[in-house]
Structure prediction request, 635 residues.
Amino acid sequence: MSHVVPLLKIEDLQVDFATHKGTVSALDGVSFELQEGEILGVVGESGCGKSVTAEAILQLLDEDSTFYDGKIMFNGENLLEYNKKKLEKLRGNDIAMIFQDPMSSLNPVMPIGKQIAESIHIHQSTSKKESIRKAVELLRLTGIPSPEQRAKEYPHELSGGMRQRVMIAMALSCQPKLLIADEPTTALDVTIQAQILELITSFQKQLNMGIILITHDFGVIANMCTKVAVMYLGQVIEETDVKTLFKRPFHPYTIGLMKSVPQIEGERVEQLPSIAGTVPSLFQIPTGCRFAPRCKYASSTCESSMPSLETVENNHRVRCWHYDEVLKGETIYAD
Amino acid sequence: MSESTKVLVNKPIDFKKTIKKNSRFFSNRLLLTGSILLVITTFIGVFASFLSPYEILEIDPKNRLAAPSNAHWFGTDNFGRDVFSRTMYGVRISLLIGVTVTLVASVIGLTVGLLASYYKLLDHIFMRICDGLFAFPSILLAIAIMSALGPKSINVIIALVLVFIPSIARIVRSAALVVKEKVFIEALQAQGASSFRILFLHIAPNILAPLIVQVTFVFAVTILTEASLSFLGAGIPAPLPSLGNMLYDGKLAIYNAWWMTVFPGLFIILIVLGLNLFGDGLRDHLDPKSKLSVKRRKRR
Prediction:
């Protein structure tokens, strides 16, 4: 498998923001790869850099104050070397993105059909009429009833779930090879969540897309993804396939995250365990392991030097000095 | 489609229904009054040549400074010209200059404001120029430009356009800066839309409401400024009547012939009042969160 060029391979990606208080490193050494047809889940607390990673792939962050380093290889080409024209061609055509809040990710003063048609028009240079026809067809595929009429409606006339379907229709309008879904269901209620995720999966199977699914819901990860990357404070701290992660997480942070999710089966606990402390500000990043101040296994090594993301087993990579100890010390629930 | 239009055509217009349908418009008194005034003055401007019983340059030396009568409704001026006819034409010229200046200034102001909101370098350049233009009182600046260009009607338009671009560009820029940070703009970028497309096809429609309101005020101020310029002798050159230079002519004979000042002045008031009421009303009408419209909705 290793000789196949991966769909997306991120190597040691660094993203820095220039702020009034100085430069801040939002991502530090993010690496992962994704094959065609794979779904990679990216999990972590708020502010750990999940969304920044997504936006960095398409370079949507503010041009003037963002600095990139490392490599983002898409089909063997480094996206960081692309110029603006090439990026515009790539965005929406080869890589598409779905945003968290469907309420605000559509233009409020334009009918939705026209908005979908526009992105078809941009990339496939079809006529306006043809684009609208295709847009209606896409709306039908995403399960919106009476799409001809809906296409003429404005975003405020649709419910949240409908709007997210419109966003999906728009993202898939050019049959992208990679879809980045940045918390696509966070703003929706649970019943709609399942429908939306199912819709994304069915399209994924048809088009054999790669998907990067950003979420903080382990349930969604377990259901949908083939691979997982856990992020903490701008770094990937653990990366493996889903089954392995749920069976045997190595990193104390991953274990903490999993324990803080309530279990439906088994004994009911009075209080859910939580991870002590808070995420440090990006201005005060610990010198050693970034998780050390909150970690009960932390030693002097952890505080002084940063562990690297090392392969511990097949396809299982962890950024921790003491992962073997952690394994002995923790009992992990059965999946 | 065709059936419904047929029905509409065959039915006599039901005024009560129309009013009920557009009750938000009709219950907004500012907007209603403003619109009526504007309709009247626009009517006068468009049909000035039909409305005026005399030629505007037709002099009648025997009948100088005649008081309002059946023959001359608004009296005559110091050359014996009919003040009524001249006022009608004055309204036409004022409105014509107002519309042209507002249109041109809006288009340029919109473009400048949008570009400034999006490109940092252009922002610095454009906004410093605007600051410079803002530093002068608008009339003073207009006089300065007029004296540089010479007294011609077209130059009045150029001068006023230059004077009013900054105020529109500012409003557009600040509104665009807010819209630019919205998620849907990022979503558009993620769809591969070019900056041009985002600016002019997506940001521009989203800032139309504040722009339109600002435009009505600019319109009003343009008419006032044009009148002031003409009054000061730096505007529309003499034989052509404009509301401003009619006031200037009237000033000389104000104790003998009040009608020469009162009637053109009245029409300036009507136009500017109409525009201001219209602008105020429009602001309430277009802003879904404004107190007026919320209160009205609750009442219903």
